[in-house]
Amino acid sequence: MDEDAVDGSELPLDGDVLVLAGAKASVSPDRLPELVRRAQRHLAPRLDEYERTYETVEDDEERAVFLVPTDFWEEVGSELGLEAREADALRRAHAQQLRRIGSKADRREEFVTALEIREALVVGRDSV
């Protein structure tokens, strides 16, 4: 996978998260960064709405991370005209980013438990 394609400064998901999620997803690892970019273009304008509607679990200058309903990525996939496996790849990537944030903040168990009943949404503050 091209290192520029997973540059964390360009996407709200860390490069190693994309590599891991790409390896587990049913889409080509080279396709995942473009799916994330496409989703971010769709999601970023709704950031204010997400802040009012969903629980924020992490918020910094780079990104905001929310817990959203379990059908969230299915709906986003439908809005973007994605195949189910592409929407699932986005869901997996965002969940993996939440787990990584949880590991760094010593909150991994809390976030893994949250993912049993909700999904993760990561929105970049300076999305493409």
From TrEMBL:
Cross-referenced InterPro entries: DUF8048
Matching Pfam families: DUF8048
Domain annotation DUF8048: ranges: 12-125
Protein name: DUF8048 domain-containing protein
